[in-house]
Amino acid sequence: MAMDTSRDEELVHQSLDDEDEGAFEILYHRYEMALLNFFYRRVGSWETAQDLMQETFIKVHTHLGTLRDRKKFSSWMFSIARQLIATHIRENRRSVETDPVDEIFETHRIEPEYRSPVESIIAEEQMEIVRALAQRLPESERRAFELRLENMTLEEISETLGISASATKVRLHRAKAKLVAWMKSEYPGEFDYLFPDKD
After folding, report:
1. CA 160/CA 158 separation, integer angstroms
2. In 3D, which of 75, 5, 67, 1 has the Cα closest to residue 38?
3. What is the dihedral of CA 152, 156, 162, 166, to 10 degrees?
4. Overall pTM surpassing 0.85 (yes/no)
5. Tens place of pLDDT for every residue, the chain, 199 residues?
6. Domains along the chain?
7. Which is nearest to 130 in space by CA: 88, 199, 186?
8. SS in 3 state form for the chain?
């Protein structure tokens, strides 16, 4: 397929007003690899990433008419992708080790160009809160958590601290449990979207 240089907003306009499916196909091919890589970096499975990418485009196509600012198509599309990631993580909590703190990590790690200015500010502010609260942790837990913030794996943290993987896991679990409790009590409303209603 020859590369199309039309701007996103022009293609969105054609898809909506002219009912030109070819225009949406161009948008699909323009962003399919970016979305696929976006999902793969977060789920570690090409098959799951492919499914999530397809689901994203289905939602984009279905709700394209709700896009107010057509110049912000890519940001809007990636916000849908981020919501699908959050849903995927919540639905797979039993098989994927994650928690509210990890979900903040996921939002913060999304490339700035794929976040709106407001989303970027919120992500940075929330990470600052987490970092500040982490300073209250006992040294052993704080050190493990700080290494986690540096994107180290469980094995890497264990090796750095010179302790077993199980001991590292316990320290991280305790650290995150305390952080979640502080987040809930000291910042009411700020992180409510991360906590299920089962409490």
Report:
1. 6
2. 75
3. 90
4. no
5. 444 557 877 887 777 765 556 888 888 888 888 888 888 877 777 888 899 999 999 988 888 878 777 777 888 888 888 888 888 877 775 444 445 566 565 555 555 554 555 556 656 777 788 888 899 999 999 999 888 888 788 888 999 999 998 899 899 889 888 888 888 888 776 665 555 444 3
6. 9-91 (1.10.1740.10), 100-192 (1.10.10.10)
7. 186
8. CCCCCCCHHHHHHHHHHCCCHHHHHHHHHHHHHHHHHHHHHHHCCHHHHHHHHHHHHHHHHHHHHHCCCHHHHHHHHHHHHHHHHHHHHHHCCCCCCCCHHHHHHHHHHCCHHHCCHHHHHHHHHHHHHHHHHHCCCCHHHHHHHHHHHCCCCHHHHHHHHCCCHHHHHHHHHHHHHHHHHHHHHHCCCCCHHHCCCCC
**Residue 101 corresponds to which tokens in the numbers above?**
């703190």
